[in-house]
Amino acid sequence: MAAPGESLRKRSRGDRVPGPRSPSPPAPRRDPAGSPACLRAGTFWLTRIALLKALAFVYSVAFLVAFRQNKQLIGDRGLLPCRLYLEHLQRHFGGQAGWDAVGHAPTVLWLLDWSDMNATLDTLALLGLGLSSFVLVTGCANMVLMAALWALYMSLVSVGQVWYSFGWESQLLETGFLGIFLCPLWTLSRLPRHTPTSCIVIWGFRWLIFRIMLGAGLIKLRGDRCWRDLSCMDHHYETQPVPGPAAYYLHHSPWWVHRAETLGNHLVELVVPFFVFLGRRMCILHGVLQILFQAILIISGNLSFLNWLTMVPSIACFDDATLGFLFPSRPGSLKDRVLKMQEEEGQGEQPRPRHGCVVRRMVNLLLGVLIACLSVPVVLNLLSSKQIMNSSFNSLRIVNTYGAFGSVTKERTEVIVQGTASPNASAPDAVWEEYEFKCKPGALDRRPCLISPYHHRLDWLMWFAAFQTYEHHEWIIHLAGKLLANDAETLSLLALNPFENRAPPRWLRAEHYRYKFSRPGGEHAAAGRWWIRKRLGPYFPPVSLQGLRGYFRAREWPLPEPTLG
C-alpha cells in the first residue's frame, strides 16, 4: 500500500487518479499488417463518396445524351427549337425576361446570346459532362461544383419541352440538389474532416427513396385494375416503351410467374419502403432490396437512366461499416483514413470546431426545414385518392411527386414512318420504304435493343405519339419535313435512312400498326422475327415538302432545304 505522502506527490505531479469514466466507443481493431479490420457503424464518410460517384455517373449520362441530341431536338433547327419557346414566354409575360418568365423556365439561357443556340446548348452539355466526369473519377466535389451541375441540368430541362418531360428529369434535379449539401463549400478533399456528412442530408436521401417507391406503388393500386388482380405483368414486358431482349423471354413466362412478379412489385414498393424507419439493420435491408429491384428493372427494360438514378438515394441506407468492403484496405487508403478518424473520435481527439461548422449546421437545419415544407403538398398527394405522378409543385423541382406505370396498355401500337420516291403518292405501284429508329420496334427481324442507361428521346416520344393522333404531337410533322429534305442533323437520331446516298423522298407518310412479340419456337420466330404486326390504318396521310410550307411558316419553323442523303 502506498503511503499517504506518496499518493499526494503523485497527484501534485499531475498524475490522474483512476476513477469511474464514461464509456467510449471501442476503437476498431487492426490486423498485424496495419490495415483496417473493421469500421464502426454510424458514420458516412465512405457513403458520401459512393453517393457522389453514383450521382456523378447519372449526371454524366444525362449530359452525354444532351450533347448528342439537343441540337436535333431543341437547337436552332431542332424539332422544337428552344429559342422559339423562350421567345413565346417573353411575349406571354410582357415582352421581356422578367421574374415571371424566369420563374416559369429557370435557365441560364436567359442571360446568354441566342444567336447560335446550337453552340450554347453544346457548351452547357459539355461543361456538365466535364464536371460530372471529374467527380466520377476523383470522388472529389464541393458545393460550388455540385450547384453548377444542378444549375446546368435545370437550364436544359427548363427549355427541353416535351423532350425533357419525363419523371426522371425532376428526380435527377431533386437528387442533385441534395448532393450539393453532401459537400464542403470550397474544399475538394474526398474526406473533408471539418464537413462531416449531416444526418439531415442522409435522411433527405432516404426520404426521397421512400417517396419514389411508395408513390410508384400507390399509383398502381389506384390506377389500373390489373395491378390489383395481379395480371399487369401479362402485358407489361410487351407494351413498355422500349422493350429489351430479356423482355421477349420474360413476356412468355408462365402465368403464375407473372402473378408472383406483380405481387413482388407490390411488396417492394408498398412494404419495403417503411423499412427505412425501422433501425439500422432494416434500413440496410431496404437499400439492398431496392438496388436489386432496380437491377432487375434495368435488365428487363430500357427505362433510360431512371433505375440507375433510383439506386442513388438507396446508397444512403448504408453507413461506412456496411460499405467498407467496397474500398481497398491497404495502409493510407480511404478506408484506412476513415478508420483512423473513427479511432480519434472514439478517443475524444476530434478536430476543434470552426466558425464555419456552426454556419454549416445552420445551413443543414434550413435544408431540413425547406424539405419539410415542400413535402407537405407531396404527402397530401400521396394520401389523395386522386394522386398524380411525376409532377413538381415548385419551379425549381426540389421536392417532387413520383410514380410509374399507373396504367398498363394491353396492346402495343407503333407509328411506322415511310417514304417514297414516286411522284404520285396514291399510285398503286408506289414503293414505300420504312425508316428505322435507334431502339423502338420497327423491322420485325430486328432484335430488341439493350441501351439503358442511355436514352433515345425521340424513340420514347414516338411511343407516346402512338397513343394519340398526330394533331396532339406537332413535332412529328416537323420530323416529316426534315426527313423529306434528308436533313442530316435529324437523320442522326435514326438508325436507318432508306434514302441514304439518294435523292430525298417526294412523299412521306406514317402508318399505324399493332405489334406483338412472336412466340419462341413458332413459325415467325423460326423465320428470325421477334415481332408480328397488323396494320390498323394511316397515322397521317402522305405529305410533301411543298405542302408543308404553310404549316411550317405558321409555327415559325425554318423550312429545310432538300439535300442528297
How would you describe this structure in keywords?
2 domains, alpha+beta, 4-stranded antiparallel beta sheet, single chain, 22 helices, 565 residues, two-stranded antiparallel ribbon
| Overall pLDDT confidence | 91
Q: Characterize the biggest β-sheet.
A: 4 strands, antiparallel
Total of helices:
22
Residue share in helix: 40-55%
Tell me the strand percentage band: 5-15%
Q: Count the E strands.
A: 8
Give the C-alpha Rg: 29 Å
Give a description of the structure:
By secondary structure, this protein is α+β, with helices and mostly antiparallel strands. The protein folds into two domains: 45-401, no CATH class; 412-554, no CATH class. The protein has 22 helices and eight strands. It has helices spanning 4-12, 45-74, 82-92, 99-104, 117-138, 143-159, 167-180, 199-222, 225-228, 233-239, 245-251, 255-271, 280-300, 306-314, 320-323, 334-346, 355-383, 457-465, 475-484, 488-491, 523-526, 549-554; strands at residues 391-392, 400-401, 412-420, 433-434, 436-437, 494-496, 507-517, 531-543. It has a four-stranded antiparallel beta sheet with strand order 4-3-7-8. β1 and β2 (400-401) form a beta hairpin. α13 (280-300) runs antiparallel to α14. The chain is globular, with a radius of gyration of 29 Å. It starts with a helix and ends in an 11-residue tail after the last helix. Mean pLDDT is 91; it is low at 1-36.
In short:
The protein is of the alpha+beta class. The chain has helices at residues 4-12, 45-74, 82-92, 99-104, 117-138, 143-159, 167-180, 199-222, 225-228, 233-239, 245-251, 255-271, 280-300, 306-314, 320-323, 334-346, 355-383, 457-465, 475-484, 488-491, 523-526, 549-554, and strands spanning 391-392, 400-401, 412-420, 433-434, 436-437, 494-496, 507-517, 531-543. The protein is globular, with a radius of gyration of 29 Å.
